[in-house]
Structure formats: C-alpha cells, structure tokens
Amino acid sequence: MLNFFQLILIYAGIYAIMAIGQNCITGYTGMLSLCHAGFFCIGSYATAIICKVFGLSFWLSLPVAALAAGLVGLLIGIPTLRLKGDYLCIATLGLGEIIRNVATNLNPVGFSQIPRASLFGYEFASRYKVPFIILIWAFVLVFYILFQQLAHSRLGRAMVAVREDEVAAQSNGINVTKYKISSFVLGAAVGGIAGCLQTAYTLTVQPGSYTFMVSVMVLCTVVLGGMGNAKAVILGAFIIQFISYLPQLTGLTNVIPAQAKQIIYGLLLVVMMLCRPQGILGRDKYRYGDPRTRMEKLADFFHRSKKAKGGRA
Amino acid sequence: MGEILKIDNISVSYGNIRALSDVSMTVSEGDIVSLIGANGAGKSTLLKAIVGLEPLKAGHIEFAGETICQSKHHASLTTDLIAKRGIALVPEGRHVFADMTVEENLDMGAFMVRDSDLIARRKEDMYDLFPILGARKKQKTRSLSGGEQQMMAIARALMSAPRLLLLDEPGLGLAPLIVQDIFNKIKLINEENKVTVFLVEQNARLALRSSSYGYVLENGKIVLQDSGEALLNNERVQKAYLGA
C-alpha cells in the first residue's frame, strides 16, 4: 500500500511537471495543444540516448532533453501556431503521433537497462522510491516557482493578453506570433524535462508509452485543476494519478479493468465542465493582492462556478 | 501642420469582395478627423488596414513620412511594430481584456513602455481623465458597463502615448449622454495631450461636430470630403446620414 502511495507521488510529480508545461501553453497563452506526449517522448529518448548510447551523465541529459523538446516545439510551432482553437488542436494531435511513430520506427523496442542517475555518489535505484520522490518534487517546486514568476513577468502578461484577445494584444504592441512560439517552446522544454525524469526512474523507454492518451491526460490535469494556475495543475496531477491507480489502491485489480480509468477521466471531465468549468481552483485571479475578506472569498468560491457558466469556459 | 497619416490609393478585398477601392486620404497632425459611413461601407476595414490587420491589395500607407503598409506583404510592418511607431487603435467592440482588472488593462496598454515610474504616472493621468476608472481600478473589466469599458479601451490605448489615436465606433451601443461624454473626452485628449485623432463613426452628427475634417465612405469609396462643418451642412450628408 505504502508502495502505491509512493508510486502515485512519483507519477503525480512527473505529471505535475508536464502539466506545468501544458499550462504555459494552454492556461497562459490559450493554445489548445495536444502533443505533450510527444515532448515527453523526446525528453525520455534524449536521456536514454545520452545515458545509454553515449554513456554520459544523467545530469547532462537534463538540459539536452529540454533543448531537444524545445527545439522540436519551435520547429513545429512556427508553421502550426498560426492556427486557432480546434485547428491547432488537430494539427498538434497529428504531430504528437508523428513523434511517437518516428520513435517506434527508429527502435521498436526502445531502450532498457539505462544507467542509473547518481548525485554526490548516491545512486538512484528504482527500488528506493523516497529519493526519487524528493528529486522529482524538487523539480516540481523549481518549475512551480519559475512559472509563478513568469506569470507575473512581462512575458507572462503578454501571454495572457494573447489568450484574452489577440487583436487587442497586437494593438498594444505585442508581437502575438513571438509570444505564442515562446510559450510553446517553454512548455515543450518543460515536457522534455518530465520525460527525462521519468527515464531516470523507469530506466527503460518504450515508444508505446507515449500515446495520445498521455497528451489527453496532461490536458485533463490542467483543465481539472484550473487553467492558468500553477498550484491548481499540481493538485490536478494528484487527482489524475490517484484515479489512475484506483484499482490497485482498492485492491480490486481483478474486478476493475485497467480501461475503467479512462471512463472515470471522461466522466470527471463531463462533470467538471458542467459544474466548475474553470477547474477546481480556477484561475489565479488577483495579481495585485486579493482585496476580498475571507468570508467574501468563501462566498466567491461557491458563486464563481455559476458566473463562469454564463461566460466563456 | 504636416500630414501625419497618408493613405494613398489603397484597396482591400475579402476574397472576391472588394471592401475598399482606391481610397486616398490624409490626416494632419493635431487634428480630429472623422470618417462616416453606413454599415458595411468599409470603415472598420480601413482602420484595420492602417494598423496592418488587413493586407492591402494595392496602394500604400505612410505614417509620419514612412511607409508602414503596402501591397507587398513582406515589406509591410506587422501590427505590433506599427503600434510601436505610435499608432494606437481602439478596436470596434472595445476588445478589453475582460478577465483582467482595469489597472492590469492599463498596464497592458503600456506594454511597450519599460519605465515603471512613467507607467505609474500615465496611469494617474488616466485616472484623472476618467475618474470612474480610478474608482474601479481593482475591478475586473468584465464587470464594467459598456461606457466604462469604452473609456477603459481609450485609456489603455493612450497608455502608450501614441501620436495617432484610431477610434473605431467609440459610441457604438452606448446611451446618447455617454456618447457625448466620450466625445468630450476625445476632444480633451486631442487638445491637452496633442494626440491626433482619426475616428470612424456612424453617429455622423456628433462625429462631424467634433472634427476639423471629415470623409464620407460609401461602398468602399470616398465619395465626399470637406471640413467637419461644411459636411454637416452638405445636402447629401444631411439626407443620408443626418436624417434631415
């Protein structure tokens, strides 16, 4: 049981990092992208190749994974980011599949027995989960702080302006293309790092684990927690991973088929869209400090869902 | 005073439909110039063309003596670069950042300004100009009334201290008293801040009364041009736009 909780913590961390990346693209800049599995895949492969083929350190593979995913993000971002909404969604969906297929065709069995990562002489072994939990959540913390800073920076404000209204953003001197691409590349690079950490934990990479479902799960994580809110997407990652391991946790693996979790995700999203379209925590709202009292906050929390239904979701 | 904006024989098409054909006009520095016309005459298209949101089929547009838009697409400036040159557009339907507060919207308007003291000073100026915005600065723009949103959109455009302010139907959907108030502010901005104003409006009487010069656009062509006062007394304008 404890083992499962530790596993959930590890995967919740990895998905939280991916979701922070997806949140940059979808939550801040408002681009509906569905290829995070692709960036995840590139990060994983970059680490596998660096550590296994070249025999270099895991720590070196971190920046390489981020750069590789970011570079692919840049290359596919330039032609596709002119598309809007559902068109962009379909285009990125296709690109995620291309990345997976390229990986499959390069090496159908992937890589296994990748050398372990080590830090100051300590070797991270998959059997001992606590060090991994610390490692991965340290990264979550770093990215959380970084993206929280970003949200309040000039770059972050420009991204939000692009999401809210492209015409208004352009009229205010914001280069929409530039900020869309920056956001996409940043999100992709973070996805790459998530892949790198996953490889350090599993020590194997297989093309079969980077399916479209992964991208959907990451997007669900962001939508569930609350778009544009870094805290919320971390919460979302917990919930999604918890559901994912529900059969094992309840000891009902024989009764509940593994596919059941996809039904639960689906149901959860339907219920969310109906009751709280802005996500559990909703957007980060008050940049200049919250002027409301605690009671007002509580009242707002219960009323916001009604308001949001009337506006755009 | 010199010409700040020169539009030279421009044409704009949406597919096979010609929205503007051979439109030429000039705006002199320091003036308020208005363009009146019915729905679908091409007024908004003209403003969008000036800021590079609509590509030109022919002709070119000069701002402060330099070409900003031309039919050769790659040689035209993009909208954000045109904004940097000093043209601020208040788009039709206001296009406020609804989920941001009034203050955050004004900050966005000053996106090109790097000096935070200057931004703070300009914000204060805007709150002086539109006291209602000062009272509502921490409120979500979504919760503002239509008139307040229009004022905010104008204030946001002014945050970049533009040389030329383009207004697309500032009175659209607002009560007559509020429209009058907004036009008074526009005159004030023009006189005090020395901002040249080019506005597009269906409310021809109010627009021409505030303007030193006016153009009449019909079916994508300029059919009349004269001083604001002369146009107000023009028989054709009176018949078609002033309901006389």
**Total helix count of chain A?**
13
Beta-strand percentage of chain B?
A: 25-35%
What proportion of the residues of chain A form beta strands (DSSP E)? under 5%
Q: Tally the helices of chain B: what do you get? A: 10
- Spatial sequence of strands, sheet with the most strands of chain A: 1-2
CATH class of chain A: Mainly Alpha
* Alpha-carbon Rg of chain A, integer: 19 Å
Structural class of chain A: mainly alpha
Q: Write the element-wise H/E pattern of chain A from the N-terminal end onward.
A: HHHHEEHHHHHHHHH
Q: Architecture of chain A, CATH level 2?
A: Orthogonal Bundle
Strand element count of chain B: 10
Strand/helix succession of chain B? EEEHEEHEHHHHEHEHEEHH
Low-confidence stretches of chain B: none
Please tell me the total number of domains of chain A: 1
Structural class of chain B, by secondary structure, is alpha/beta
CATH class of chain B: Alpha Beta
Query: Rg of chain B to the nearest angstrom?
Result: 17 Å
Say how many strands of chain A there are: 2
Task: Explain what this protein looks like in three dimensions.
The complex is a heterodimer of chains A (313) and B (244). Chain A has a two-stranded antiparallel ribbon with strand order 1-2. Chain A is globular and about 55 Å long. The model of chain A is unreliable at 307-313 (pLDDT under 50). In chain A, strand 1 and strand 2 form a beta hairpin. With 313 residues, chain A is mainly α. In chain A, helix 1 packs parallel to helix 5, helix 2 (36-53) runs antiparallel to helix 3 and helix 3 runs antiparallel to helix 8. Chain A is built from 13 helices and 2 strands. In chain A, 46% of the residues are buried. Chain A has one domain (2-310): ABC transporter involved in vitamin B12 uptake, BtuC. The two termini of chain A are 38 Å apart. Chain B is an alpha/beta fold and 244 residues long. Chain B has one domain (3-94, 162-241): Rossmann fold (3-Layer(aba) Sandwich), CATH 3.40.50. Helix content of chain B is 38%, strand content 28%. Chain B contains 10 helices and 10 strands. Chain B has a 6-stranded mixed β-sheet, sandwiched between helices. In chain B, strands 2-1-4-5 form a 4-stranded antiparallel β-sheet, with helices on one face. In chain B, strand 1 (3-14) and strand 2 form a beta hairpin. Chain B starts with a strand and ends with a helix. The A-B interface holds A 154, 157-158, 160-161, 164-165, 167-176, 283, 287-288, 291, 311 and B 51, 53, 78-81, 83-84, 88-91, 95-101, 103-104, 107-109, 111-112, 138, 142, 156-157, 160.
